[in-house]
Amino acid sequence: MLESLAISLVDAVPVLSGVPLWTITLLIMVVVAAVVLTFALTYAGLATYVERKVAGDIQARIGPNRVGPVGILQFLADGIKLLLKEDIIPAKADRFLFVLAPYLVFIGSFAAFVVVPFGVGLIASDLNIGIYYVMAITSLVVVGVLVAGWASNNKWALLGGMRAAAQIVSYEIPVGMALLPAVLIAGSLSLQDIVRSQGGLFGIFGWNLFHNPFTFFSFFLYYVAALAETNRTPFDIPEAESELVAGYHVEYSGIRFAFFFLAEYGDMFVVSALATACFLGGWHVPFLNAEALPAVWGNLFSLGVFLGKALGLVVVMMWVRWTLPRLRVDQLMRMSWKYLVPLTFFNLLGVSLWLLLFQGRGIPQMIASLFG
Amino acid sequence: MKARAEALPTQEMLINMGPQHPSTHGVLRVILRTDGEVVVNARPDVGYLHRALEKIGERVTYAQFMPFTDRLDYLASMNCNAAWAWAVEKLAGIEVPERAEYIRVIVCELNRISSHLIAFGSFTADMGAFTPFLYAIRERERINDLFEEICGNRLTYNYVRIGGVSADLPDRFLEKTKEFLDYFDPKIPEYNDLISYNKIFVHRLANVAVATPEDAVAYGLTGPNLRGSGVRFDLRRNEPYSVYPKIDFDICVGTGERGTVGDCFDRYMVRINEMRESVKILRQAIAQIPDGPVMAKVPRVFKPPVGEVYFRAENPRGETGIYLISDGTVNPYRLKIRAPSFVTMNIFEKITRGLMIADIVAVIGSFDIILPEIDR
Q: What angle (nearest 5°) sits at the alpha carbon of residue A106, between those of residues A105 and A107?
């Protein structure tokens, strides 16, 4: 895809024809990566601000209100503070692994942004194994968390790391199985294809959410499991402030801590984006086809729609976090293996049977065909 | 299979929970011996906040010790103040004006509400829900405002005096208290809706760390912790003091409504229900309070007769006992304080065996311990 983009760029700007094609491709790659990373970091920063405002609202207080108008610049102040903090590596820590862990977590979380279908043509790389790629790359987070817990040489961090590893590995199974119905319906692993498959019928009844009862439940199962995979309350037992102090990142300070922090918010967006793309029709809205609009407007419009849906789900996560208490570790495991895994499996079976019986048509389509 | 088990030896881990830990409610240190997540043994190690208050009590006069009682249980200073005053009055046989006794009951019950609010808030925060804590603080703030009006302080009040109280109630205090009660009463069902019957919350607490009624009595649990085990015992009723006999209220006990009698949830629910009873007591006290003086005649150089006394009061955390020996001089010959939280730590090791690490936090929170009182 990038290569074709490079070729079209050369066609459009003849001056570039002297430059070797691979340099242009590389340049575009760097630019796209920079754009995605900038977006991701800005989002993560603003999300921390929104989280604190949401928390403030829920807790009957104001929240940040000192830096900038209504405290909007608070996240910049916090970021600068974290940058200026002393970087402490405990004397008995495994230095190499201690330094490595935040990068693993950060990469695992932010590399997933590459395949997020932000708009009609706005996707950094439309991999044909999109969902598979996300599942694989976010697994890097487990490694990072485990390494962080081990390398800190702190018993609380170790406990947190072990909990996190057990939790994320357990919940990846229901997450994967809950996403599969969307793959089955679209017949593709590419996120962009999955979004495209949900157009049609006023733009809302094509959404996988309404395709059949099984996909409807699949969405909620996915959301719950994804909440657990991102270590958010009520499933935040790896961090569990009141039990493990801070879990695996208890020994981290300054910008290294910020990496874990940003990764958490990155993760939140990634799982919300996946839910949006797979169940809520991605950038589709009722009565308006973004693909039919002129390229620039279509892209901008679809970007807005997609971000609106995904960030809405992120806010729901924050809402949940400040409302619910935390589960215990054994209850968490029981929930995954005794409830979510069988239920998602049952759902997957149900969707497969549905597709087989009704030749891939959803309930809205069937109702529409009744009326001709 | 056996060979593999030998190749992968497991070992118990010794973890220090505290003295610096967010959920030990102060500087409690719990030495955990764990097998993975399961606690094999949890031994509380107290004494990090020891200030020798009992010894200080022997070096200062009876009246001078009053501010030190503020530092016993700083979330229920009024109750500690009053317990000290009642003990000394019992020793010296001082007759306290009725209005002063009513004022004491009013401030004690207000303080009980504020103390239980903190217990409720910090307990839910321990369970991972941070929001209720701020709701509790919001309500407690209004009680602090009321206390600020009567004595100028918001945490360590030093309001009660031997023989009465330091000053009469300010203007409109009773009306403001009534306004607070009208505001606060509907909040309790709101807490229950918000968190008490939340499924996760109940699952975390039901059947966890059960203290059977026999154990609770044998290990000397008192106050809400004892009542949480289903034992109907409240000093305000069973050994009435002050004007409590004239006031009608129920004793809340654990019923095992979501699990076993005496589990963490019961101890939690007893506190929630007691706030409601305190509101009831306050309404009656406000209706009954007579006019009159608020201070008895107590000589400036106060020398109680030779003798000894033990007085126990029902404080928010249980039975605060004050044992005094007087040798007829201005300072006590011996002072011993029975701190409810300290005695509660006895049962800790027994009921935490075999729980998970997360449950330890629940147990500490459900006992609602306070460290300055444990260490004195």
A: 95
Residue B323 pLDDT: 92
Nearest to B226 by CA among B214, B241, B238: B214
The pLDDT value recorded for residue B156 is 87
Check residues A154 and A203 and name the one with the higher pLDDT: A154
Nearest by CB to B127, from A59, A163, A326: name it: A326
Last residue of a domain, one of A46, A81, A116: A81
Instruction: Give residue A63's domain range.
Output: 1-81
Closest approach of B259 to chain A, Cα-based (Å) = 16
Alpha helices (H) along A59-129: 74-84, 95-110
> Please, what is the average pLDDT of chain A?
82
Distance from C-alpha of B276 to C-alpha of B274, rounded to nearest angstrom:
5
Report chain B's mean pLDDT, rounded to a whole number.
87
| Assessment of whether the complete model's pTM goes beyond 0.80 | yes
- DSSP result, B142-203: HHHHHHHHHHS-SS----EETTEESSPPPTTHHHHHHHHHHHHTTHHHHHIIIIIT-HHHHH
Starting at the earlier edge strand, list the strands of the sheet with B13-17. B13-17, B29-35, B38-45
The confidence score (pLDDT) of residue B1 equals: 44
Q: Which of A35, A156, A187, A16 is nearest to A90 (CA)?
A: A156
Most confident option among A93-107, A281-295, A352-366: A93-107
Which among A61, A232, A328, A335 is the top mutation candidate for probing chain B, defined by the most B β-carbons within 10 Å of its own β-carbon?
A: A328
Q: Which fold has domain B7-375?
A: Cytochrome-c3 Hydrogenase; chain B (1.10.645)
Q: How far apart are CA A175 and CA A134, in angstroms?
A: 11
Q: How far is CA B357 from CA B32, B37, B62, B284, in A?
A: 8, 6, 44, 44
Asked if A242's CB is within 8 angstroms of B128's CB, the reply is yes
Question: Residue A241 is nearest to which of B13, B22, B201, comparing CB atoms?
Answer: B22
Burial tier of A303 (Cβ tally within 10 Å: 0-12, 13-18, 19+): middle
